[in-house]
Design a protein that fits this description.
Layout: E1 2-7, E2 10-12, E3 18-26, E4 33-39, E5 46-52, E6 58-60, E7 68-73, E8 78-83, E9 92-99, E10 113-114, E11 118-122
Parallel strand pairs: 2-11
Antiparallel strand pairs: 1-3, 3-8, 4-5, 4-9, 5-6, 7-8, 9-10, 9-11
Length: 124
């Protein structure tokens, strides 16, 4: 069993920044990839970024490239998502997910472990 707890969401103005953090505990040895997904209002769940637990290989969806950075700290068992230049279309509930899937895997069905989600609202 892997437990994931997100933190860091909130309200920010367009152009602002937020950092989301995912605390990972439990059977971390079973994890290959950790991802951030989001569900915008009225839309479907989409991957935002992924990172492999050991090697740190990353993937980003096109719309966040150059603005978001995913990173992991294996000593603290955390995965962070630094979000800069946030735009209203980034408004969503953001979820941390972990699984045995390979690097760059983006289908949410492959991730067995999920956090509770954290709300990010970008509005003037």
């Amino acid at each position: 069993q892997v437990r994931l707890v997100e933190s860091g969401g909130g309200l920010v103005q367009p152009g602002g920044s937020l950092t989301l953090s995912c605390a990972v505990s439990g059977r971390t040895a079973t994890i290959n990839t950790v991802a951030w997904f989001r569900i915008p209002p009225g839309l479907e769940r989409d991957v935002v970024a992924t990172i492999t637990w050991t090697a740190g290989s990353t993937y980003y969806r096109d719309s966040v490239k150059g603005r978001f950075t995913i990173s992991r700290d294996n000593t603290k068992n955390t995965v962070n998502l630094q979000m800069d230049n946030l735009q209203p279309e980034d408004t969503a509930v953001y979820y941390c997910a972990a699984g045995t899937v390979p690097s760059r895997y983006t289908n949410y069905r492959g991730f067995a472990n999920w956090g509770q989600g954290t709300q990010v609202t970008v509005s003037a």
